[in-house]
Amino acid sequence: MHIYDRFSKINTYNYDSFYNIMQSQRAKVIRNELKQHYVSLSLDVFEKTADIPSNCSILIEDWQFDIFFNFINTKKLYIVLSGSRNIGDPLPLFKRWSWNSAFDGSVLYISDPMFYKFKDCTLGWYYGSYEFNIYKYIKKIVEIIHNKYNFQHIIFYGSSGGGFAALQAATYHSNSFAIAINPQIYINRYDYADKFKQHTGIDLNLPDKYNRNRLDILLKKSSSKFFILQNASDKHHCTDHLFPLLKEYHLKPRYGLQNSNNLYLWMYHAFGGHNSQEDMDILQFILIISNIILENNVFSDTECKLAIAVNELWSQLHWFKYVINTFQK
Where would I find the beta strands (DSSP E) of the chain? Predict the structure, then answer.
C-alpha cells in the first residue's frame, strides 16, 4: 500500500470539520505510516534480509541509521539526505519524504545519525566522529540495496547541509551522481561550525583523516558527477562556498547552466536567499536536466535555454510567496 492510501474519506461537508480532520491525518496518519512495520536490525542482518524493509533502523556500533525506502523501479535509486533540524523535531528526520512519488525512480531516505548521538546538534552533515565515518556506512547501506535491485543509476540528493552530504556521499560511490541545492562546500566556513564543535567536540578546522573537511579535493578526484544548483541571491553560499569551488575548476560564475569536467552548475535567482529552494514542480525540471547529464554528459543549447525559462518561473514563484506572506502579516 502506498503511503497516500492511508488517507481516508472525511464524512463531512462542513469546511472547518473537514480541514481539522485533514490536518490531523497529515500530522498523525503519515507519521504513523512512517513508523509502521518499523524494525531494528544490525548491518549483518540487514544485508542478509530477503526484502528491504520500508522503514527500519540499522545499528552500526553505537550509531543509529534510520531509513525509509520506497521501491518504484530499478532505473534509478535516489538517496535523499537531510540538512538542519529544529530542536524538538521528531526523529527520524526525512526531509522531502512526501516527495517520494515525485521522483522518477526508487527513493531511499537516510536520517542523520548525528542527531541521536548529539542531542543538541541541529546540523550534523552526516559527519560522524574523528574515527567513525558515517559516509563509509552510507556507502555500505546503498551497496546492499543496490546489489538486491541492480539499479542503473545511483543518485544522491539534498540541499544546504543535505547538499553537502549528497556531494560527499557520491564521492564514496564510484560513477554515481549527486544533485545539491545551495550546498555548503567548505563546512569550516559555515556559521554553524563553532556550535558544531561545541556540541560534538569536532573542530572542522583541523585536518581530517578522511578529508571530509576538504570536499573540493574529493570532488575533483572522483569518478562521479556533481550537479550543483545555486541561488544567486544567497550571498554567503556564493561567496564562501561556490565561488572558491569554481576557481578550483577554472569556471567563472554564470547565470544558467554550464559545466567543467565532472562539475555541472545551474545558477538561478529567487527572492529570499538560501532558503528559496526547489518545490515539487521545479523538481521535475531538475530531473529533466539531470537525465540529460546522465545520458549526454554535456548541455546543449536547448537545455541552456530551458534553464533560463525555468529560472524566470522559479524567480516569480518565490516573489509571489514573499508578497503573499508580506500582506498576510
Answer: 39-42, 55-60, 63-70, 76-81, 106-110, 153-159, 177-181, 225-231, 256-260, 263-268
